[in-house]
Amino acid sequence: MPITLAAVRDARDYLPAAQWDRLVTLIRRDHHLDQALSERILGQTIAFLITCSRNPGLSLRPSPMVDLGWHTFLHDTPAYWEFSQLHNGGYIHHIPDLTENDLESPLVLRATVQAMRDSGFIVDEELWAGQTADCNQCYAGCSNSPRKAA
Fold this sequence. Notes:
mainly alpha; globular
């Protein structure tokens, strides 16, 4: 069933305006990105986290750009803790994936995008299309790839 305009969720509804602005500023500052891209990244990060909290049994993972937004949010620990408690009933963990053979990554990303759509969010295709990430949801969490650190 297609999502009607009335059913579309806005990621901004999940954060107070001042917190949204602060996180966009942190993404801009820490990753040298422009305002528009920082806003898009934060929007998809919040949509992803809300989707994870609503689908704890699904294996979900962010794209690299969304993972960048998630890392920024994690660093603002009091705000992230409060968000997790409010929307997940507990901390949304970011757990390393040590899988050496990551052949399922594109399939998990497609499933993630579909779960976000099913949750009522508009997906920013440019931030998700053709992306792979070396992390996945585990108990509504994700990871930063240890392979990208090298």
